[in-house]
Amino acid sequence: MNPQILKVEKRINADPLRIFQAWLNSEDFAQWFLSGEGIGIESVHMDPRPGGKFIINMTMDGKIFPHEGEYITIDSPNKLVFTWRSHATENQDTLVTVTFVKITDTTVVTSSKQKPQTLVTLTHEQLINDIQIKMHNHGWTSILESLSQWID
């Protein structure tokens, strides 16, 4: 099978640095990294440096589902690249790139203050079939929505 690529984008009302840091702080990460209804976070362990590893233990129906990987690129506040492996990738390494681009022509006004906006683009490569694409599209879309609500 040919590897497939998934791309998910979300505008978030915060500056790129704040959003970027939320991806590398395990306490913050555990609060917003929710991939869908009924899924929780049991624990998050991170070593946020190139070559450092992470493990995210998600829970569903009383079971723990480990998601793990290794940081490849940490370019604050512009880009994160990491491997991603879980039961949903059939325990094969895949590649995730997350970019954070400040939207300069649009600001959101709340309470007479202007908030910067960032376009977060997540690209997930090396998925091997339509089922993996569908599962990860749902998960990453939910995760970016959860991040947006948590950070706002």
Description:
There is one protein chain. By secondary structure, the chain is an alpha+beta fold. The protein has a single domain (4-38, 74-151), classed as Alpha-D-Glucose-1,6-Bisphosphate, Chain A, domain 4. It has three helices and seven strands. It has a seven-stranded antiparallel beta sheet with strand order 1-7-6-5-4-3-2. Strand 4 (63-75) and strand 5 (79-84) form a beta hairpin. It is globular, with a radius of gyration of 15 Å. The termini are far apart. The mean pLDDT is 93. Residues 14-149 form the Activator of Hsp90 ATPase homologue 1/2-like C-terminal domain. Belongs to the AHA1 family. InterPro entries: ASHA1/2-like_C, START-like_dom_sf. This is SRPBCC domain-containing protein.
Secondary-structure map:
Blueprint: E1 4-12, H1 16-22, H2 26-32, E2 40-46, E3 53-60, E4 63-75, E5 79-84, E6 94-110, E7 113-127, H3 130-151
- Determine the fraction of residues in helical runs and give it as a percent range: 10-25%
- What count of helical segments does DSSP give? 3
- The CATH architecture assignment turns out to be 2-Layer Sandwich
Strand order across the largest sheet: 1-7-6-5-4-3-2
CATH topology: the name is Alpha-D-Glucose-1,6-Bisphosphate, Chain A, domain 4
**Main beta sheet, described?**
7 strands, antiparallel
Q: What is the name of the CATH superfamily?
A: START domain
Rg, nearest Å: 15 Å
Mean pLDDT: 93
CATH class: Alpha Beta
Low-pLDDT residue spans: none
The computed structural class is alpha+beta
Record field, number of beta strands? 7
Shape: globular
